[in-house]
Amino acid sequence: MPYRVDLNAIGKEQVSFDFKIDDTFFSALEQAIVKEGDLLAHVEISPNAGNSYQLQVGVEGYVVVPCDRCLEPMSLNVSVRQDVNVETASTDHDASVDAVVAEKDGSLDLAPLIYDFIALAIPIQHMHAEGECDVEMMNKLNSYMVY
User: Fold this and answer.
1) What is the pLDDT of residues 18-39, one digit of tens each?
2) pTM above the 0.85 mark?
3) 91 alpha carbon, distance to own chain's centre
4) N or C: which end of the chain has fewer CB within 10 A?
C-alpha cells in the first residue's frame, strides 16, 4: 500500500514522506464523498519516548465537489495542517493518543487520516461565486422560486 508507513522501521530521527493525492486515491476509498482532486500530502514523523510518535500532516491542493446550487463540479482549495499522536501497543495504551497501531505489525495506514483531514477541510456549503453557476440550472431553479 503506498500510504502505509512501517513505524517499527523508523529510527530515532525525524523522517518525512510526500504522497500524491489524486483521483486514484479517492477511487480506492469506499464511500468517499470527494471523487476528484490534486493534492500533495507531506507527513513528518518524529519518534517520542517509548513507542509513541508525533505526526505532522500537511495537505495542500484542490478537490472537485458538486456546487450546492447548480450541481456542476467546482474546485475548492484545501490547505490542512494537523498533528496526530500515534502509539504502537499490544493491549494497553495512553488515552491521549489519537491512533493506536498493533505493536507486532507496526504498519500505519495514512490514507484514512489524510482523507479525513481533506473531507473536514471542505466547507459545509460549497457554491460557485455569484454568476458562475450553470445558467440553465439557475434558470430552472428560478422558475420554481416564489418571491
Assistant:
1) 999 999 999 888 777 888 999 9
2) no
3) 28
4) C
CA dist 104 and 101 (Å) reads: 9
Strand ranges across the sheet with 73-89: 15-21, 36-47, 52-66, 73-89, 99-102
The C-alpha atoms of residue 21 and residue 101 are separated, in whole angstroms, by 23
Cell readout for 87 is 502509539
3-state class (DSSP) for residue 10:
coil
Q: Does residue 118 sit in helix, strand or coil?
A: helix
C-alpha cell, 132:
458562475
Could you list the beta-strand ranges (E) of the chain.
4-6, 15-21, 36-47, 52-66, 73-89, 99-102, 107-109
